[in-house]
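Example for tutorial group B:
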């Protein structure tokens, strides 16, 4: 039985359409929903809704679910709709009347937001750690090849002298900026929505400060309407942060693909990370980098998918918001996996110093020659014209 079901049976086709795969996605949220419920139960005990004994039994049952879920045995069925229903059904079956008290002073609206934000916080921490590992891999390349010169390009033509160290350093700095962006998104979502009900407050006095502290939130999100309006808005911010990381991995992939071409030969990819051709025996293809490059477009599409879903909605909760969940979950999955794969590629990347040196042809130093004349007092435009005659 559903939490809202009373006097009628929902049409099966409608049920399948409205639930879709939400019950499957919610498997990721079981632990977080239980943690939110544990904090909520402790608060209900404090305000006198639950006795100390009831509180203890509920907490024990919720930790039991976390254990079962950790073993992969807590299954949410389509008829449950979501993890909230499955969890409540479990505690009601186990504790009877006491279990029925768990939903006092909350709605699935603030409940799901609480679970999602706890999940988001953990996922962002994981991504930030992976980014640190990626930076470490880039630092190894930068320090090892800091003095290895290679051409710098503009308009995909040789332009000025560059170096492998300069190339790696560019992505290090950019990744640091990405960390700032994602850390700011973390601060944005680090506010508790629990205790705002459906989006218009509660007629029972609760202790929102207590639940926020128990769940490790930095602050309380106060306006109940904004709590609901921020769903989708915060998700799009998360995906924007992830897409910036993926953008850098996209560009890094394009660079490595080009610089490892036979025609360039600045970088070398070992056979173990390349794939072959079904018809051409000689081929060693950088498929892994091509897929990394493409996955940026997936993540950035999720950002705009969420923004399009939440556009034109009136204030308050709308069921459209259910469709934003999958986009964020996939965004995290793709970003984490892609960073890990890029770390593997960078750790195995080799630089062909001989080919880099051969590529440092004289035209790369044209601007430098112009500035040598400037140092002697020649106006830059005259120096520019003088040097241009040589090429």
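The residue assignment follows.
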């Amino acid at each position: 039985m559903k939490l809202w079901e009373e006097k009628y049976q929902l049409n099966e086709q409608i049920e399948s359409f409205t639930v879709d795969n939400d019950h499957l996605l919610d498997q990721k949220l079981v632990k977080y929903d239980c943690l939110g419920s544990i904090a909520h139960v402790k608060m209900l005990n404090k305000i006198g809704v639950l006795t100390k004994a009831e509180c203890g039994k509920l907490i024990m049952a919720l930790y039991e679910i976390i254990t079962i879920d950790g073993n992969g045995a807590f299954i949410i069925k389509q008829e449950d709709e979501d993890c909230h229903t499955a969890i409540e059904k479990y505690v009601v079956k186990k504790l009877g009347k006491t279990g029925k008290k768990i939903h006092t002073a909350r709605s699935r609206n603030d409940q799901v937001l609480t679970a999602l934000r706890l999940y988001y916080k953990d996922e962002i921490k994981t991504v930030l750690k992976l980014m640190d590992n990626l930076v470490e891999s880039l630092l190894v390349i930068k320090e090892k090849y800091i003095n290895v010169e290679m051409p710098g390009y503009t308009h995909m033509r040789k332009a000025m002298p560059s170096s492998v160290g300069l190339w790696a350093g560019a992505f290090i700095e950019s990744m640091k900026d990405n960390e700032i962006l994602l850390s700011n998104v973390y601060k944005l979502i680090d506010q508790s929505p629990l205790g705002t009900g459906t989006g218009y407050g509660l007629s029972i006095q609760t202790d929102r400060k207590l639940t926020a502290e128990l769940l490790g939130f930095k602050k309380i999100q106060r306006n109940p309407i904004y709590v609901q309006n921020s769903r989708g808005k915060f998700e799009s911010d998360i995906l924007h942060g992830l897409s910036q990381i993926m953008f850098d991995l996209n560009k890094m992939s394009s660079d490595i693909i080009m610089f490892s071409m036979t025609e360039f030969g600045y970088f070398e990819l070992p056979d173990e990370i390349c794939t072959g051709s079904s018809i051409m025996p000689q081929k060693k293809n950088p498929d892994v980098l091509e897929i990394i490059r493409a996955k940026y477009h997936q993540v950035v599409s999720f950002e705009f998918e969420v923004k399009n879903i939440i556009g034109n909605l009136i204030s308050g909760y709308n069921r459209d918001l259910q469709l934003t969940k999958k986009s964020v979950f996939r965004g995290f999955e793709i970003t984490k996996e892609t960073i890990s794969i890029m770390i593997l590629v960078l750790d195995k990347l080799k630089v062909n110093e001989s080919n880099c040196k051969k590529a440092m042809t004289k035209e790369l130093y044209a601007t430098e020659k112009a500035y040598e004349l400037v140092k002697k007092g020649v106006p830059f435009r005259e120096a520019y014209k003088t040097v241009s005659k040589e090429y």
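Residues 12-101 form a domain with the Fumarase C; Chain B, domain 1 fold (CATH 1.10.275.10). Compare this with the pattern of hydrophobic and polar residues in the output above.
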